[in-house]
């Protein structure tokens, strides 16, 4: 079997001026060519894990491996050509058009101060089309709804042409039609060989998309395995510390609290 594209080895991380570690000796492997979903209660450390996977922060103990090499051995530009992050939210002080904003995803491929080429523009257009925002390409990013903004962040990540796509709650602002559209878009990327690591608070999205599940709590991995193995009432209930029911209806896996 292929080596994992991403590996966390006993990683501990603490935010400055906080009394406790947000990640507490966390070990995790992300297999290539699959969707891995991280679930867990608020504050479990899911976003922090994604930030370390992108090299935004460094662990205070342990190591992060990307594609068989220590993450610290890559330049920022090299990381940007392999990994793209779709954050939960992002402050945006400039009135870029959507097309200009998505073009920022091409930065890891451009020499310093060089303008994007026509091929970069074509890649940015295709990314906008894939998420269904091409009709808003000239609009200011400051004039978007929450859901449109979320799709824009996905488009910018797609313009990076990553091999590993990190998504932090990517469907939290989307209506049902856009959820379906994004799930189909992510399945398309998977078919192209992109590995996806996402966090989510939406069991129905995870059950439709993920093959692997990571269950987190208090900065640790409680359990990692296939969706089949972990999608059980007792396991999910222990993760969220609330009695949950799991059942199948019409081929769909549903989760609800009692
Ligand atoms: N910039 C920061 N400075 C200090 N502490 C932080 C910072 N960001 C997050 N934390 C803390 O680190 C812990 C993990 O936060 P994180 O955002 O990774 O959790 P999460 O699992 O993604 O939560 P959620 O489901 O609510 O998005 C929490 O206790 C949080 O309060």
Automatic annotation (TrEMBL):
Family the entry assigns: Belongs to the ABC transporter superfamily.
Molecular function as annotated in GO: ATP binding; ATP hydrolysis activity
Residue ranges constituting the ABC transporter domain according to the UniProt record: 6-243
CDD domains: ABC_Iron-Siderophores_B12_Hemin
Record organism: Thermanaerothrix daxensis
UniProt keyword terms in alphabetical order: ATP-binding, Nucleotide-binding, Transport
Record's protein name: ABC transporter domain-containing protein
InterPro entries: AAA+_ATPase, ABC_transporter-like_ATP-bd, Metal_Ion_Import_ABC, P-loop_NTPase
